[in-house]
């Protein structure tokens, strides 16, 4: 094991390091002398205490793997060996690395567990390339916001979560007023810059768990999880004011946005399409009432009125 080109370490039945080969030294920046005989090998990979994959095999804690690792599988036929991948802090090196780990038990003739061996592979470059591809697949090329595909996926996920947790879910539809005239006056390059600045303004008003996406053309959509209609109205008004403050010239005035807001409490008999349609209807009302304003609707109330009318 000492001469293997693959980073490898082994722990005994008490969780103390037996082997820390040279490849593992190079990977972690930690010399073997610092870790042999100790149970502090986790410090080579993480800033906060947490078990390595070898520790989980030793402690028969395979059911904790999903909470600790991004990807994981059971490798051996008896289910004792584990394979997993995760980001590691690598404190000694001062940088994060994405490592693939394999941990396998070593047993005596009577089946007693005497040690666990863990091998490691640095997959940082592959992971970063994968993330870059995912970014291209989910981001709008012009504005850097989430694209329509990402919006659809996220809205579906948030709807299901709101359904499970019985929380409200709000949606804003944001449309740039008189954008055709802006394009005619400043050309498509000017129009692109206008959309980029508006995208930044909208994104600046988001919480960490909100999502703003380019829905299409000059229209943006904002998903507000666990946000009631009153809260959605406050966010919508902040967005409207922020865009107005950009003071982008358009005809005799400045570029503004109209916003339709809708809120629903998801239930088994409701559908996501109803929430989108309600927000769209609210946006149409804002446009019809003179633009540069917000219009609000609660989706389930709207649905009940439609049913009553029918």
TrEMBL record:
SMART domains: GGDEF. Residues 1-76 form the PAS domain. Its EC number is 2.7.7.65. GO terms for cellular component: plasma membrane. GO terms for molecular function: diguanylate cyclase activity. It holds the Pfam family PAS. Signal peptide: none annotated. PANTHER family: DIGUANYLATE CYCLASE DGCM-RELATED, REGULATORY COMPONENTS OF SENSORY TRANSDUCTION SYSTEM. NCBIfam families: GGDEF (TIGR00254). This is diguanylate cyclase. The lineage of its organism: Bacteria, Pseudomonadati, Pseudomonadota, Betaproteobacteria, Burkholderiales.
């Amino acid at each position: 094991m000492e001469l293997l080109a693959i980073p490898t370490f082994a722990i005994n039945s008490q969780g103390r390091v037996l082997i820390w080969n040279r490849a593992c030294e190079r990977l972690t920046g930690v010399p073997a002398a610092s870790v042999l005989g100790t149970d502090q090998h986790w410090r080579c990979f993480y800033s906060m205490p947490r078990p390595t994959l070898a520790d989980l095999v030793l402690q028969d804690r395979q059911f904790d793997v999903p909470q600790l690792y991004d990807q994981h599988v059971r490798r051996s036929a008896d289910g004792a060996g584990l394979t997993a991948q995760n980001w590691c802090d690598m404190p000694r090196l001062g940088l994060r690395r994405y490592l693939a780990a394999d941990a396998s038990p070593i047993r005596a003739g009577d089946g007693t567990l005497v040690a666990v061996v863990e091998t490691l592979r640095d997959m940082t470059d592959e992971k970063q390339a994968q993330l870059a591809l995912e970014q291209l697949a989910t981001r709008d090329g012009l504005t850097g916001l989430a694209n329509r595909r990402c919006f659809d996926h996220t809205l579906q996920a948030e709807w299901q979560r709101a359904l499970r947790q019985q929380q409200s879910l709000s949606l804003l539809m944001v449309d740039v007023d008189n954008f055709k005239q802006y394009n005619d006056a400043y050309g498509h390059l000017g129009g692109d810059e206008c959309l980029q600045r508006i995208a930044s303004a909208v994104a600046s008003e988001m919480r960490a768990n909100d999502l703003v996406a380019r829905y299409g053309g000059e229209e943006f959509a904002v998903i507000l999880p666990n946000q009631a209609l009153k809260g959605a109205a406050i966010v919508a008004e902040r967005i409207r004011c922020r865009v107005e403050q950009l003071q982008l010239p358009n005809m005799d005035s400045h570029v503004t946005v109209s916003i339709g807001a809708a809120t629903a409490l998801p239930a088994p008999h409701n559908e996501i399409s109803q929430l989108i349609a309600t927000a769209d209807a609210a946006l149409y009302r804002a446009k019809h009432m003179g633009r540069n304003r917000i219009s609000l609707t609660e989706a389930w109330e709207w649905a009940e009125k439609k049913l009553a009318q029918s």
